[in-house]
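Posting for a labmate who doesn't have an account.
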Amino acid sequence: MFINLNDKDYLYNQIYDSIKEKINTKQLKTNDKLPSIRKLSNELNISINTVSNAYYQLEKEGYIRSSERSGFFVEKSGHILQSDTSFDDEDMIVAEKNSYLYDFSFSGVDKSCFKYKQIRKAFRDSINEDDDAILGKVDGLGLFSLRCSISNYLKDFREIIVNPNQIVVSSGSNELLILIKNLLNNPVFGFENPGYAYHGIGFYNNFNSTPIDVNEDGIDIDFLKQTDANVVSVTPSHQFPTSAIMPINKRIDLLNWAYEKNNRYIIEDDYDAEFKYKLRPIAPLKTLDVNDKVIYIGNFSRTVTPAMRVSFMVLPKNLMKKFYSVLKSERCPVSIFVQSALSKFIDSGDFEKQVNQMKKVYAKKYEIIFSKINGCKFIDFEKTDCGTSVVIKVDKRIDSDVLLKTLKENSVYVIPIDDFYLDKNMNTNVFLIGFAKMSYDDISNGMDIIVNVVNNLVN
């Protein structure tokens, strides 16, 4: 056995690797006896402890066994079965990665609004040697200081009065829905169709669920009443992705649906409430909830950054008792450092400043899109003056697949609303235009391309 005394690797690792290789290559066979620890240490001119550590590791992993007064022997090991099937690199299917010059996807935030300096400070301040909380575990509700910050924020900006102990912090809206599913013992969910639940890889498959149609003023409540759903998830202030706003009479009708039975609840996803550009933000459904049947969900993906992955929900008081008894072993998946930093960022006032700056920037981007579309008679666009995306409807004479292909050739990415339906072949000719992370110039140039492509395809 050869070892290199000048190698930076530990000597016992070299011995371990050498013996292990000989066993794996059958140079050492089952029941072959190894040199004694003292003998091998003398041969290699190294300490007994070094050889002992190598033998100890090999024995723990099952390569060798020790026999009292007899020494060390190679242990019997199985043979790994190998399939006859082999794959070359070219046989592997690799997901296509497209890089678009004009990416109108709906995620992200405006880089110019992100307060790097203040957020760095919040993270530095969160690592405080006098704060023992950052060294421990956080229960399923999340860090108490963050829950207090969220409670104050909801009171000041959404007029929702809530005890911090009703707030549950998690790493995304999907994770919160799974918590609700477990809390309510796998109820029948009603998901908006179109809606986020039906986008992508089929998140709805995690639930016992039924699709609820969406009309021009929100979900079809008459349709909801005909289903077995006892929990319905809605985006009433700005339906995603259609941008529909639920009027007061329909909100009351929806609340009354929940009040009719004890096991019914409404999940209100208030995902972009901060971004109302004219007049005041639309009041949440939760502010009308006199019987405490609305589970309110919010997140910081659009107001801070999606990289933080922090969301929260406000549970009705009767469900909090059940949460403690049923899900008391749950742990908040969000890092304590992230929670602490976010709490400090909110409490400092910098969060409010960032949101206000975003509103001004996004309002200007919104107007750029409107000005570009306004002159095109083949594109319909209803102004809602809110959110970080808009919905456009293209002339029915245009084949949507041809439109998407042509836009792709011009390095423009838009999302068909069909992607958010349970049935992906709706042929609606409606598209989602996200603009949060794009610059003014990119929005302007990208919209010029969209308008020109639409005009050319019609003509």
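Reply:
Got it, the structure tokens are right above this. The chain has a mean pLDDT of 89.
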